[in-house]
Amino acid sequence: MRALSSQGGQARLALVAAFGLLVAGCSESEAPDDDLSSIRAPEITRIMPASEALTGAHIPSLDPAPMVDAAIQKALGAGPRCEFRYTTAGRPVLAAGMQPDGTPSGGIVKLNGSLVPLGPVPVDIAAGPEGLLLLAADPVRVAVMPIIDDEAEEREGLRRQEATMIFEVGQELRVGYRGYLDCGSGPPVRSSRR
To answer: Roughly how many angstroms between the first and final C-alpha of the chain, as a whole number?
Structure first.
């Protein structure tokens, strides 16, 4: 019986030694995933003119895409801004820098994977509804109109109101979205839960 036990011990010792050699060999592997020099933080989406961003896009199915705060900050800088989002918890699909008089200084929208800067379009205050935002970069035009009947909600320096956004690309596309317009004296503060 003792001979069996001794043979089993030797077999276990041989198995442990083989496993040790196998593990030691793995640490010296030159596998591509061991090279940490190629790991970089993802770049913020590129900013480009509307005509370039639309190259190759299927215009009839194009929608403004959600943007991250870092991309909006890169495009518009700090300061007061308004953001349109499809849902109350969603990311903005349009952001506009605002001047002290409440008119937009410029905006940004993400189309076909790229950020497209938009310029303000002058609005005759007497002819347009209150709170109307018009932004454009040929052939893209965006209009955001707060819903008149909806009472704005004020929270933490942010004014939220239901709104309609009309998005146009030349004569090929004109589509409307119902969502929320958030305006504040600075970039919106996000909850840590998001």
So the answer is: 65
